Amino acid sequence: MTSETSARAYEDRRGEPAERVVRPTEEDEVAAAGSELLGGPMGRWAWGAGHWLTPVRVIALVAIGMFALGMAQKAPCYDWAWFRGANSQYTHACYSDIPHLYVGRGFADDLVPYFDRLSGDMGYLEYPVLTGLFMEVASWLTPSGGSMQHREQMYWMVNAGMLMACTAVIAVCVARTHRRRPWDALLVALAPAFALTATINWDLFAIALTAAAMLMWSRSRPLAFGILIGLATAAKLYPVLLLGPLLFLCWRAGKWREYGVAVLGAAASWLAVNVPVMLLAPEGWKKFYTFSQERSVDFGSFWLIISQRTGKSLDVDMVNNLATLLMVLLCAGIAALTLTAPRRPRFAQLAFLVVAAFILTNKVYSPQYVLWLIPLAALARPRWRDFLIWQAGEVVYFLGIWMYLAYTMSGEKHQGLPPEGYQLAIAAHLLATLYLCAVIVRDIMMPERDVVRRDGSDDPSGGVLDGAGDVFVLGQAAHPPRHAAPLVEGPRVEWGTRQPGT
């Protein structure tokens, strides 16, 4: 049996269209070279019909294995560094919020998030409602006996188990989003920054919901997509940003009904989660939003570089306004790109760009925020070279922030990375992210360079947008050059005109 027959059998067993699975080793020189470590590219007899080890299962197992390696990397902190002074957890680069917030946010004392006030100045839990529920469920599953150190360790372990389940969901959803390209999800499974940052905080929960939403949209299920995006936004704010580029994609394709269903689903699910807490504990509910507005310029942002280089503290309100203005301008640019590109951009490309814009302009960049982008990057630009360049910058930042914190916490000894070195680490993260944004924008403007579209595909993650014709375009997109002509021709209109019946 040939590899093509095997791939078709693999799809047929799931009741989906029989299509040949694209393998990275066949089109990506870095993937082909890397496969030599495992004996070379996959042979024609690999994964024959009926084999239980399908690509999706392989990817899920690899993702879980890398997650376990990330847990092992936290071993020095788990054993002692979390509990014997702050500096050791930074010099070993194994810091996690989870054990510290078990005590610091009242879970060890059985306080109810949003309803019970915390001791000190914090007031209430500063996380969105669904993440607060995730944290609370983990505290219910944590054994109550033993010393506080043991309980903190168990709380981290319980959360790690729940986040490992989220990791498997993310890997499976990304692998299934592009029907013909499941192996692109190996970018997620093998991402070094994923393993290093997975258990720092609870972001993987929202990312799993977002990945499931992307899968539902790729299957032309806008209501399920909207419900999942609403739930993801109830766990972390960034998923709601995906509705922005989707608006302009649906505008260009004339898919207003599907977009409206998605927005209504998102609003309904977000309200279903938030309204009870909003009504019964309004002060606790709004803490996340007031905290985000009131926090000062913090780690990882270019705002911090400006503050440190000038030696001046930046006014919080001024930074909030400027960051919002920059974000609005970048979103306007993404909207213009969507409506003027020679071919309608793919949903994953724009999703990456809008979340990256939020990260780049934000006044804080926690190291785990890279997790937001990794699944989107695998769908938007599945090229190993570009992905690894970006990941290298993120790993540099991951090490840089802990070494900088070690420097600030070591007193007069100054053991670690000084501010100038930390600024270089921030620059590495910013430039690496901008690089990946640049190649994605190039793919949009020169669709023949888009590796996903080389086989004649339009938008495998686009659902109702995949293969749809344009009904509204701006500028030169109405008369694309020959090399950028769409593979699927559809009715087109100039600005201010409409096709009959559209």
UniProtKB/TrEMBL annotation:
User: What Pfam families does the record tag this protein with?
Assistant: GT87 (PF09594)
Q: How does it sit in the membrane?
A: Multi-pass membrane protein
Answer whether the UniProt record assigns the keyword Membrane to this protein: yes
Coarse class of the protein's main subcellular location: membrane
Q: Which residues cross the membrane?
A: 52-72, 154-175, 187-217, 223-249, 261-282, 318-341, 387-409, 421-441
Record-linked InterPro entries: GT87, UCP010361
The name under which this protein is listed is: Glycosyltransferase 87 family protein
Q: What is the lineage of its organism?
A: Bacteria, Bacillati, Actinomycetota, Actinomycetes, Kitasatosporales
